[in-house]
Design goal:
With about 160 residues, the protein is mainly alpha-helical. Helices cover about 85% and strands about 0% of the residues.
Amino acid sequence: MNVIDVIILLCCVPAIFRGLTKGFIAQAAALIALILGAWMSFHFSSIVVDWIKPVINVSPTVLQAIAFTLILIVVFLVLTLLGRLVEGIIRIVMLGWLNKLLGVVFALLKVLLVIGLVILLFDSVTSALEIDCSKIIGKSLFYSPIKSFADGFFPYMKELIFNK
């Protein structure tokens, strides 16, 4: 275990507490928002770029990043509000304990997806700048499995990063 693994584990600790406090519904809504938001951002960012291009005068790469981020934020906010509505219904039915237990699982899954996206971005930057990090990465227990996990959820991220 090296520094990368310690950082990953430190990121998971708050997720466990958030899962216990927020519960399954809030964590599931956030996870779905992350996945759906990334998917929608990838597929619809070019449309948003056309809308914001007359308003913001920056390079096409920055416009693409702004559009991607805007879509991600809007999807996240909408699904978070829906999650709160469903969570209120769950409280009425008194399944709070199950909500909390499953919340831990989904919180960890969400954090691992975010870490996976950071790893994909890190790999693309180090590859583009021709920086060799294989010694540090090779010693990590979690880096490769989390990268594979993120690749499975976001197979189009490589295309987005390398083609734009």
